[in-house]
Amino acid sequence: MRALLVDRSAPAGLRLGQAPDPVPAPHQALIRVAATSFNYGEIRHGLEEAPDGSVPGWDAAGVVEQAAADGSGPAVGTLVTTLAMDGAWAELRAVDTEWMGTAPAGADPGALSTIPVAGASALRALHRIGPLLGRRVLITGATGGVGRYAVQLARQGGAHVVASTGNPEAHSDALRTLGAHEVIVGPGPKALGTPVDGVVDLVGGSQLVDGYQMLAEHGTLVSVGHATDEREHFPARAFFGDQGGHDRTIASFYLAACTGLTRDLTWLAERVAGGGLDPQISWRGSWDGAAEAAEALLGRHLHGKAVLELD
């Protein structure tokens, strides 16, 4: 099969080549991939750690070519969105049936391919915060793929949404269109003003520290992304419970450790297909342009999702 292979001598460390067809385990379905999407983390860190000649990639959408032998999962011919820790950037991938969601027939595979990491991470992080109706929620790094899904989902859940970005002048209109009530620079007291009930942190470092300190009593910060390489340095007394600091929580997050993702992926796929969620595709093209998309993502020139269509 054709695939994007790790090759550190090629532009962006990727080249189009041939790889063996995957052999699915009994609990896996074989998917004919139509589109895949890039995530910053897999480009920034995943390629560095992957061996030469391997097929990386987390997100892909396509059609079931061979159903799982154990009878789980969707039937042959079903359009699905899929998640795994590798294998997405190829014509075929074998995927655990617990890590795929079904999509309406005729839906855009490119849009569906943006869902698994970005959409599911945003949804699960907001679930961890708890009921959103009437709550005040901060999304840091809101212009990225996860952030844009989180802004939409938080608004639809009834939250007052505060979106944090490094360049509000460039992104304010777009984030407000997605559902943000406020767009600020960083989560510090001067920018944020009023404390928040929940934080979806996609940045880490000082923004995680500031976000935690701006939590209201009983508030929760979910640490999802680590766009910065900064360490977290908390000031003295940051974890004291007096003066409104009682029962504030920092929750760690790892999507691959989540269970029950089929329901989430299917729910998200239905809403993307129906227009209720905007996948925010900012780059779209053939997988011949993978190096261009990867370099634009690493250079922070893309805000949203980059989609590759397998032709």
From TrEMBL:
What are the residue boundaries of the Enoyl reductase (ER) domain, all occurrences included? 9-308
Judging by the UniProt lineage, the source's domain of life is: Bacteria
Instruction: Read off the Pfam families from this record.
Output: ADH_N, ADH_zinc_N
Signal peptide coordinates: none
SMART domains linked to this entry: PKS_ER
Checking InterPro entries in the record gives: ADH-like_C, ADH-like_N, ER, GroES-like_sf, NAD(P)-bd_dom_sf, Zn-ADH-like_protein
* Gene3D superfamilies on file: Medium-chain alcohol dehydrogenases, catalytic domain, NAD(P)-binding Rossmann-like Domain
Per its UniProt record, what PANTHER family does this chain match? ACRYLYL-COA REDUCTASE ACUI-RELATED, SHORT-CHAIN DEHYDROGENASE/REDUCTASE
Name under which the protein is recorded? Zinc-binding dehydrogenase
Native organism:
Streptomyces gossypii
Q: What is the lineage of its organism?
A: Bacteria, Bacillati, Actinomycetota, Actinomycetes, Kitasatosporales
